């Protein structure tokens, strides 16, 4: 599975959009980009995933660059409850294997 | 949909005793479940892959005789920490995928184990 690079931490003002970047320059053609978040002392929560097209759901939007070497998770109106560690993971979508978690980005939403 | 539930949420036990943690897929069947462990301020680390009706596959460095995994049905996997020691104190998290999944996993709430 391709390696990802994320900033260690980010701050965001409540009500503003939170844009979380992820670099995955070695991604291969059959690998998807998955985003999860983990609020303190809880299990990871699935947010969104995509292959090459931008994706949007009720939680967030995922913007993948045309060359697929990087992506951005967008939380359109961050709230205090969005404070969490956000993980960007790249994996073959057809694989039955597990997800490998890196260190992620600690997002702090401030009033 | 795709809800995974763990029980108990937290447990405190004495050193030398065994503790069982259950992981259930509530609204889907899961032929494969994954057990992770997370120590404070660290990321999740895969311990083992639980396969329904067959033996679990353990990651390197995880003792299969200490961490017993049973996946007897398509909706239930259990992790038993045998002869627990204080160093086994951790946050244990299970996950599963649906048949329709394109790789995404759904995680339980986690179980906090404290061994005294």
Morphology of chain B = globular
Mean pLDDT of chain B: 93
Spatial extent as radius of gyration of chain A: 13 Å
Q: Give the overall shape of chain A, derived from the CA principal axes.
A: globular
Query: What is the terminal separation of chain B in angstroms?
Result: 37 Å
Strand content of chain A: over 45%
The quaternary structure here is: heterodimer
Strand content of chain B: over 45%
N-to-C SSE series of chain A?
EEEEEEEEE
Helix content of chain A: under 10%
Q: What is the rounded distance between the termini of chain A?
A: 37 Å
- Which pair of protein chains has the largest interface, and what are the residue counts? A-B, 25 and 25 residues
Number of strands of chain A: 9
How many distinct helices of chain B? 0
Average pLDDT of chain A, to the nearest integer?
93
Major sheet size, sense and barrel closure of chain B:
7 strands, mixed
Helix content percent band of chain B: under 10%
Q: Quickly give the structural class of chain B.
A: mainly beta
- Counting helices, strands and paired strands, the structural category of chain A is mainly beta
Number of DSSP helices of chain A?
0
Description:
The complex is a heterodimer of chains A (about 110) and B (about 120). By secondary structure, chain A is mostly beta strands. Chain A has no helices and 9 strands. Chain A has strands spanning about 10-15, 20-25, 30-40, 45-50, 55, 60-65, 70-75, 85-90, 105-110. Chain A starts with 8 loop residues before the first strand and ends with a strand. The model of chain A has no long low-confidence stretch (mean pLDDT about 95). Chain B is mainly beta and about 120 residues long. Chain B is built from no helices and 11 strands. In chain B, the strands form 2 sheets. In chain B, strands 2, 4, 5, 6, 9, 10 and 11 form a 7-stranded mixed β-sheet that branches. In chain B, strand 4 and strand 5 form a beta hairpin. The interface of A and B includes residues 45, 87, 91, 94 and 100 of A.
């Amino acid at each position: 599975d391709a390696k990802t690079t994320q900033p260690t931490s980010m701050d965001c003002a409540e009500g503003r959009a939170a844009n979380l970047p992820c670099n995955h320059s070695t991604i291969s053609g059959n690998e998807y980009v998955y985003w999860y978040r983990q609020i303190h002392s809880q299990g990871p929560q699935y947010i969104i995933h995509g292959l090459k097209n931008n994706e949007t759901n009720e939680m967030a939007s995922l913007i993948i660059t045309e060359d697929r070497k990087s992506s951005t998770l967008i939380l359109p109106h961050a709230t205090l409850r969005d404070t969490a560690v956000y993980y960007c993971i790249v994996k073959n979508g057809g694989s039955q294997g597990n997800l490998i978690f890196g260190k992620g980005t600690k997002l702090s939403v401030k009033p | 949909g795709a809800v995974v539930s763990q029980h108990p949420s937290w447990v405190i036990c004495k050193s030398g005793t065994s503790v069982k943690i259950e992981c259930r897929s509530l609204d889907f069947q899961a032929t494969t479940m994954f057990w992770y462990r997370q120590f404070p301020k660290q990321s999740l680390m895969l311990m083992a892959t639980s396969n329904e009706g067959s033996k679990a596959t353990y990651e390197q460095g995880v003792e299969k005789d200490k961490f017993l995994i049973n996946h007897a049905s398509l909706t239930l996997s259990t992790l038993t920490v045998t002869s627990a020691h204080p160093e086994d104190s951790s946050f244990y998290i299970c996950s599963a995928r649906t048949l329709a999944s394109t790789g995404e996993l759904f995680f339980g709430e986690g179980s906090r184990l404290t061994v005294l």
